[in-house]
């Protein structure tokens, strides 16, 4: 029977980061199992690569501060481009919320984040209709990364550090005995191991159930409409988010005419569907109409639209760490932030597994048992 000391199930950006951080800490015999023929066919390959520290909860802000610093200083090119994120508010209570968040973000070490008035927004984004905008917040260090480059970088570093990767290997079952992990059953046979880290994104709940663990992670389709504008986009256009509706848009990398739109459609129901819905494209167009000609006088580039799955938890925060089965760990439920938080996640899991707890950052509030204890977190700035 095949053996490994630690199995990382799922070779997306999160599994790759966990394997890298384990290898970096000197963990021997780490094996990544990926069911597809190549990595990146899960959510990581669909992600657009936004990265931001503008969150509401301390833990999300801290995970971002750590991760943005990592992306900025990594010797692997991950495409980090600090173009900024602008949140804008059309309701007084939303503007007040952004102001509170900016204070908290600054107190936690976020650099270059400030509140801005409608005039500053008008100057920042010429041609956008700002008549109903009361103000907003702008984070200079927020911006874009290349999700597949991040995943490949972590994978290369993990393999250099002695980890192994096996693609085309679907895990069917996590094996346990007397409350301990003993291995996994794959389509091609059993692998014995003492530690399993589940990094299977939107598909994690089913696998967790094979070990008797209820993991509250639901798949939710996420559609990104890619369009080409007749007019050139304003130079230096950042990510722009209407806090009231969640409607947002950003320029495509290295393009003066192409951009991506999305919004959290409240009519979307949990499912594994990954098809582009024409009705959604129309809803996006409706939201764009009001803001600027370069947003609605656009042609949809269907072959570049992206559809993938968010892996949502009830409180829109990740689940990091162990559970009642000894040797079984989770890094799941990023609810749309798994790429940007992958550096902090990998380090947290490596420390939890090797030292018993994460010491670079207290991530204990992200443990699975918060749901049983009713200690859910609260973040409304999810998009
Ligand atoms: C359209 C879209 C846009 C997004 N935009 C952003 C963004 O701007 N910024 C950001 O930070 N995040 C974004 N996200 C979220 C981000 O993509 C995810 O949070 C992140 O990719 C999760 O990484 P992962 O490695 O956990 O999951 P995945 O990338 O899904 O990887 C899981 C892997 O597990 C494998 N797997 C599943 N089951 C098994 C099994 N039984 N055995 C073996 N292998 C298995 C899958 O094949 C897959 O490769 C976006 C997501 C979508 C869908």
Description:
- By secondary structure, the chain is an alpha/beta fold.
- It contains eleven helices and 21 strands.
- It has helices at residues 13-24, 43-46, 58-73, 92-107, 118-124, 147-160, 204-209, 278-289, 293-296, 342-355, 370-373; strands at residues 2-3, 6-9, 30-33, 50-51, 85-89, 113-116, 135-139, 143-144, 164-166, 171-177, 180-186, 189-192, 195-198, 218-229, 239-242, 248-251, 258-262, 298-300, 306-312, 319-322, 328-332.
- Strand 10 (171-177) and strand 11 form a beta hairpin.
- Helix 1 packs parallel to helix 6 (147-160) and helix 3 (58-73) packs across helix 10.
- The longest helix has 16 residues, at 58-73.
- The mean pLDDT is 96.
- Flavin-adenine dinucleotide is lined by residues 9-15, 33-36, 41-44, 46-50, 170-171, 199-203, 207, 222, 224, 306, 308-310, 334, 336-340.
What is this structure's SSE topology?
Elements: E1 2-3, E2 6-9, H1 13-24, E3 30-33, H2 43-46, E4 50-51, H3 58-73, E5 85-89, H4 92-107, E6 113-116, H5 118-124, E7 135-139, E8 143-144, H6 147-160, E9 164-166, E10 171-177, E11 180-186, E12 189-192, E13 195-198, H7 204-209, E14 218-229, E15 239-242, E16 248-251, E17 258-262, H8 278-289, H9 293-296, E18 298-300, E19 306-312, E20 319-322, E21 328-332, H10 342-355, H11 370-373
Helix pairs in contact: 1-6, 1-10, 3-10
Bound molecules: flavin-adenine dinucleotide (FAD).
CATH class categorisation of the largest domain:
Alpha Beta
| Overall tally of structural domains | 2
The name of the CATH superfamily of the largest domain reads FAD/NAD(P)-binding domain
At CATH level 2, the architecture of the largest domain is 3-Layer(bba) Sandwich
What hetero molecules are in the model? flavin-adenine dinucleotide
What portion of residues is helical? Answer: 25-40%
Shape: globular
């Amino acid at each position: 029977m095949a053996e490994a000391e630690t199995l990382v199930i799922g070779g997306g950006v999160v599994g790759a980061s966990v394997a890298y951080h384990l290898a970096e800490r000197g963990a021997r015999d780490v094996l990544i199992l990926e069911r597809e023929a190549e990595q990146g066919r899960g959510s990581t390959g669909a992600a657009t690569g936004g990265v931001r520290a503008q969150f509401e909860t301390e833990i999300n802000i801290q995970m971002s501060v750590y991760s943005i610093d990592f992306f900025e200083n990594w010797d692997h090119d991950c495409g980090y481009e600090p173009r900024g994120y602008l949140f804008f508010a059309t309701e007084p209570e939303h503007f007040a919320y952004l102001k509170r968040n900016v204070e908290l973000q600054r107190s936690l070490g976020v650099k270059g984040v400030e509140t801005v008035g409608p005039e500053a927004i008008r100057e920042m984004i010429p041609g956008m209709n700002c008549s109903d905008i009361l103000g907003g917040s702008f984070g200079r260090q927020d911006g874009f990364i290349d999700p597949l480059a991040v995943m490949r970088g972590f994978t290369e570093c993990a393999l250099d550090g002695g980890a192994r990767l096996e693609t085309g290997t679907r895990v069917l079952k996590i094996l346990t005995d007397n409350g301990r992990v003993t291995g996994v059953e794959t389509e091609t046979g059993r692998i014995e191991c003492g530690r399993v880290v589940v990094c299977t994104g939107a598909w994690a709940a089913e696998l967790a159930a094979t070990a008797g663990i209820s993991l509250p992670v639901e798949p939710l389709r996420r559609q990104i409409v890619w369009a080409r504008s007749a007019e050139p986009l304003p130079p230096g256009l950042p990510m722009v988010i209407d806090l009231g509706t969640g409607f947002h848009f950003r320029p495509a990398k290295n393009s003066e005419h192409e951009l991506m739109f999305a919004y959290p459609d409240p009519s979307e129901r949990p499912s594994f569907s990954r098809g582009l819905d024409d009705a959604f494209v129309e809803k996006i167009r409706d939201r764009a109409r009001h803001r600027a000609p370069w947003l609605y006088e656009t042609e949809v580039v269907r072959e570049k639209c992206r559809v993938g799955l968010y892996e949502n938890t009830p409180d829109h925060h990740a689940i990091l760490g162990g559970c009642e089965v000894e040797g079984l760990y989770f890094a799941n439920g990023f609810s749309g932030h798994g790429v940007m938080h992958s550096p902090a996640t990998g380090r947290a899991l490596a420390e939890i597994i090797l030292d018993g707890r994460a010491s670079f950052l207290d991530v204990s509030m992200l443990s699975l048992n918060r749901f049983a204890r009713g200690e859910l977190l609260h973040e409304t700035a999810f998009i």
